[in-house]
TrEMBL record:
Protein residues bound to substrate: 580, 635, 767, 788-791
Cofactor(s) the protein needs: Mg(2+)
Entry-linked NCBIfam families: PRK05878.1 (NF004531), pyru_phos_dikin (TIGR01828)
Name of this chain's protein: Pyruvate, phosphate dikinase
Domain PEP-utilising enzyme C-terminal per the UniProt entry, residue ranges: 538-889
PROSITE patterns documented for this protein: PEP_ENZYMES_PHOS_SITE (PS00370)
Length: 902
């Protein structure tokens, strides 16, 4: 039973609107909106997501639901002048899923509900077309058998192929009524054998079972996988739309199609979409028959084409965005079956956003919300080199852009298996279906020989940002023999192919790539090639300029040398948020650190420090020069100790072999004793960071001296060095106080010796739970905090990133314990709570405390919004992620401003 007896579970299309997506799902809300606009929508009603939630929670539908559905069905029958499944002139309905967020192909739909052995003859008589009626009936049994009764879909597909082969035809439209009657009989036998029951003849039973099947489809493996991929909450449920059927399979004056108000691949305005005569909607999205371009509809049925163009303009103006539309033409009458804000490629998103601003439909703030950092990151991936020598295999439809190279695989299982083994793969199918989702996710790109821009492969690939080429008819794909043939060329499973989702071209072998024009723009080199690329760069420039104007968060870079710093600056970095000095001690310098750690006497230690000092100073001089005028946060040495010591196993073997040969090496023996003494079972939680600086006298003082001397040298050369010294792994204020007292004295000495005023600030990383919990105390000694969310995540969760990601993270993601890895997007409830409390406590102690973050989360789009919300001053990330962080910081500010104004 539902908790609220007054709760309404069913809404007529005339009762809803597009703002009720939470309740009616996207499809139901938009069907209601189109009905309100006076567009030709077949009458129907929507069962709410709340009914689905009750069903999924309890295993049964709400007690009130049946009566509500009956009342709305009676009203629909009265409106249509016919009853569901009546024998002489039956009302038929579709039962279609519709969640709040678009999940193309992931949940279930059943068409032609109401047909039976008795009513099929009535439909044939009413329509004056026996073939149409039996075609509709075989479709119902096939969809119902697979979707509702769980019969393997290939059994129906194989039977259909056998019927076509027996008739010696290649398309189902060439089967006549007699052929389809036989097929219906065969389909019913398949159902009886595989499902253990006869196909239901009662139309209401058909409808009720179909509704339950749609509810259940919310929790299918493919739906859950898609939600995890797209980060859609799992507790939303799906609405169910029951709509009076209109038929596109009534002959050549009927058909079905999908249209876009703009090209979802490029964003360009024009006539885009697919149309298929004498077909139902599933034929288009399944890609089982190749469609014609939407523009061809003008010659086929000009009146319907002109009406569709007018409706498309109405919808785009009303929704102020690219609209994805499904329609059916029944004997010259146009019907609208769905509209939604359409999925688009990354490039299209930026172009469309700026186009809509120029048309006056949206403002710049809204344009900023229409794009995101993940899309910008996609635009920064390389593309194929136009000048490279290539071997063209064929050409299909450019469905989702990008340059993808990988080994050919012909089923999803192999794609996932090979991908997990580190192979890059291209999934090749005749057409994809929802069961291929895991393989599509695992692949670099998707290639199909059937389907168009609105096929399942194209729509899902665009949503995921995967490269996709569809409808490459020249390619003969044989999935059973695991090969693809193009003329005389045979591509076996494992052969490398390259696909270009921007041109639709398919190549044999690996094609080299070149930088993206968007990267060239960020590097300061505008692309000088195709106009299309220049247009994209212009759109990115406009949106980035607005993001930079409105954002509050500053964006810095994680960079350890001058080369990375200069690149980061070109990408828009406003300083360095993390310079990891341990990266400066690799190669030949590693031996000096080893000598320092293993030193037995003050003389040995001071000699090692003296050798390291000029090397460190040179590093900092170059870094301060590259980032002149911008802040540079230098983290003092923070390696786990084992990274600078000889491997204990290798050293033990070396000593043992020497002893067996009686060739003793006193230095190795001494070294082994020292390594044994310092050996740690868990070095990530051992002698590192501030602990190392306190245990090894002079280590941090040497680094501070190198920083101060480099800053003084740069300042005396008329530069503007802005160094910040960061102490790592502090867990208590006393540690920081000791280090700071020593550092302050070193800085004073350098200022006196060089006659300069350096104004160096000293702060700490907050990367331990205790540091976050005692942030108010630590702020008494720190002038800034930088949250090290990588280590903070490890220590809060109690696991090692290097170990757990390879061991159990996959299982945790599959089971839904994690929606996303906590190392990828910040865990707001745990790690985030510590960050928030540390911000509040730190600023309560020191109101001018500068706050930043320098973990990997600093470049993650969702995490950037969190850092804006809690009041950090900056985020820091790798140079390549800087544009993404800049864009998301702008989006966070615009979103926050919009929320405040509401």
């Amino acid at each position: 039973m539902s908790e609220n007896k007054d709760q309404k579970f069913v809404y007529d299309f005339t009762e809803g609107n597009r703002d009720l997506k939470d309740l009616l799902g996207g499809k139901g809300a938009n069907l209601a909106e189109m009905t309100n606009l006076g567009l030709p929508v077949p009458p129907g009603f929507t069962i709410t997501t709340e009914a689905c939630k009750v069903y999924l929670d309890s295993g049964t539908a709400p007690a009130e639901l049946r009566a509500e559905v009956s009342a709305h069905l009676e009203a629909l029958e009265a409106k249509m002048g016919k009853k569901l499944g009546q024998s002489d002139d039956p009302l038929l309905v579709s039962v279609r899923s519709g969640a709040k967020f678009s999940m193309p192909g992931m949940m279930d739909t059943v068409l032609n509900i109401g047909l039976s052995d008795e009513s099929v003859t009535g439909l044939a008589s009413q329509a004056g077309d026996e073939r149409f009626a039996w075609d509709s009936y075989r479709r119902l049994i096939q969809m119902f058998g697979k979707t509702v009764l769980g019969v393997e879909g290939e059994l129906f597909e194989d039977a259909l192929e056998e019927a076509k082969a027996a008739k010696k035809v290649t398309v189902d439209t060439d089967l006549d009524a007699a052929d389809l009657k036989k097929l219906v009989k065969h389909f019913k036998k398949i159902v009886a054998k595989e499902a253990g029951r006869e196909f239901p003849q009662d139309p209401r039973e058909q409808m009720d079972l179909a509704v339950e099947a749609v509810f259940n489809s919310w929790n299918t493996d493919r739906a859950k996988l898609y939600r995890r991929q797209e980060r859609i909450p799992g507790d939303l449920g799906t609405a169910v739309n029951i709509c009076s059927m209109v038929f596109g399979n009534l002959g050549p004056d009927s058909g079905t199609g999908v249209a876009f108000t703009r090209d979802p691949a490029s964003g360009h305005q024009g006539v885009y979409g697919d149309y298929l005569q004498n077909a139902q909607g599933e034929d288009v999205v399944a890609g089982i028959r190749n469609t014609v371009p939407l523009a061809d509809l003008e010659a086929i049925d000009k009146a319907s084409y002109d009406q569709l163009m007018t409706i498309m303009e109405t919808l785009e103006t009303h929704y102020k965005d690219l609209c994805d539309i499904e329609f059916t033409i029944e004997r010259g009458q146009l019907w609208m079956l769905q509209t939604r804000v359409g999925k688009r490629t990354a490039g299209a998103a930026f172009r469309i956003a700026t186009q809509l601003v120029d048309q006056g439909l949206i403002d710049e703030a809204e344009a900023l919300q229409r794009v995101n950092g993940a899309q910008l990151a996609q635009l920064m991936f390389p593309r194929f080199d136009d000048q490279a020598k290539t071997r063209l295999l064929g050409r299909g439809i450019a469905a989702s852009p990008g340059a993808a190279v990988g080994k050919a695989v012909f089923d999803s299982y192999t794609a996932v298996k090979w991908s997990r083994s580190g192979e890059k793969v291209i999934l090749i199918r005749r057409e994809t279906n929802p069961d291929d989702l895991d393989g599509m996710i695992a692949s670099e790109g998707i290639l199909t020989s059937r389907g168009g821009k609105t096929s399942h492969a194209a729509v899902v690939a665009r949503g995921m940002g995967k490269t996709c080429v569809c409808g490459a008819e020249e390619l003969d794909v044989d999935t059973k023999r695991r090969r693809m043939t193009v003329g005389e060329t045979v591509i076996e499973e494992g052969d490398v192919v390259s696909i270009d989702g921007s041109t639709g071209k398919v190549y044999l072998g690996e094609v080299p790539v070149v930088p993206s024009p968007v990267v060239e723009y960020f590097e300061g080199r505008m692309h000088a090639g195709a106009d299309d690329a220049d247009e994209l760069v212009a759109a990115v420039h406009r949106i980035m300029a607005y993001a930079d104007r409105v954002r509050r968060l500053r964006v810095r870079a994680n960079a350890d040398n001058a080369e990375d710093a200069l690149r980061a600056r070109r990408f828009g970095a406003q300083g360095i948020g993390l310079c990891r000095t341990e990266h400066m001690f690799l190669g030949e310098r590693r031996e000096l650190v080893e000598r320092l750690i293993l030193a037995d006497t003050d003389e040995e230690r001071e000699a090692a420090l003296a050798a390291l000092l000029p090397l460190q100073k040179k590093d900092f001089v170059e870094l301060f020069e590259a980032m002149d005028g911008l802040p540079v946060t230098v983290r003092l040495l923070d390696p786990p100790l084992h990274e600078f010591l000889p491997d204990i196993t290798e050293l033990s073997v070396r000593v043992a072999l020497a002893e067996s040969r009686k060739d003793h090496n006193e230095n190795d023996l001494r070294l082994l004793q020292a390594v044994h003494k310092l050996h740690e079972q868990n070095p990530m939680l051992g002698l590192r960071g501030v602990r190392l600086g306190l245990v090894i006298p002079g280590l941090f003082a040497m680094q501070v001296r190198a920083i101060a001397e480099a800053a003084a040298e740069r300042k005396n050369a008329k530069g503007d060095p802005r160094a910040e010294i960061m102490v790592p792994l502090v867990g208590t204020v006393q540690e920081l106080e000791i280090v700071r007292e020593e550092a302050d004295q070193v800085i004073r000495d350098i200022e006196a010796a060089t006659g300069t005023s350096l104004r160096l600030t000293i702060g700490t990383m907050i990367e331990l739970p205790r540091a976050a919990l005692t942030a108010g105390q630590i702020a008494e000694a720190a002038q800034f905090f930088s949250f090290g969310t990588n280590d903070l995540t490890q220590t809060v969760w109690g696991f090692s990133r290097d170990d757990v990601e390879a061991s159990f993270f996959t299982a945790y993601l599959e089971k839904g314990i994690f929606g996303v890895s906590p190392f990828e997007t910040i865990d707001k409830d745990g790690v985030g709570a510590l960050v928030r409390s540390a911000v509040e406590a730190g600023r309560a102690t020191r109101p001018d405390l500068k706050l930043g973050v320098c973990g990997e989360h600093g470049g993650d789009p969702e995490s950037v919004h969190f850092f804006h919300e809690v009041g950090l001053d900056y985020v820091s990330c790798s140079p390549f992620r800087i544009p993404v962080a800049r864009l998301e910081a702008g989006r966070a500010a615009a979103e926050s401003k919009g929320s405040d104004s509401r």
